[in-house]
């Protein structure tokens, strides 16, 4: 049994809120902390939440980061190629 991803956790949290504020919650996601330094995390989060959310919702991700993006190791680059993920950074 695996754990829910951050996109699923965010989606589930929004869906537990009153229907009247869900639109605002989908439109105002803030990503902060260490994992936001990985290149492409915002685009991926936006793509994955968009796939889960109702099609009428506008999804927006905002970053708050005090650190520059982390360099991508050769091993991570190889894994990203195998998973067909964009390599930036």
Automatic annotation (TrEMBL):
Keywords: ATP-binding, Cytoplasm, Cytoskeleton, Nucleotide-binding. The keyword Cytoplasm applies. GO terms for cellular component: cytoskeleton. Its main location: cytoplasm. GO terms for molecular function: ATP binding. Gene3D superfamilies: 3.30.420.40. InterPro entries: Actin (IPR004000), ATPase_NBD (IPR043129). It is found in: Cytoplasm, Cytoskeleton. It holds the Pfam family Actin. This is Alpha skeletal muscle. It comes from Limosa lapponica baueri.
């Amino acid at each position: 049994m695996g754990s829910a991803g951050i996109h699923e956790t965010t989606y589930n949290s929004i869906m537990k809120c009153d229907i009247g504020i869900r639109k605002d919650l989908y439109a105002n996601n803030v990503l902060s902390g260490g994992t936001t330094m990985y290149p492409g995390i915002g685009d991926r989060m936006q793509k994955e939440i968009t796939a889960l959310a109702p099609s009428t919702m506008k999804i927006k991700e905002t970053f708050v980061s005090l650190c520059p993006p982390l360099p991508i190791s050769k091993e991570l680059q190889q894994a990203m190629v195998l998973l067909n993920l964009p390599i930036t950074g």
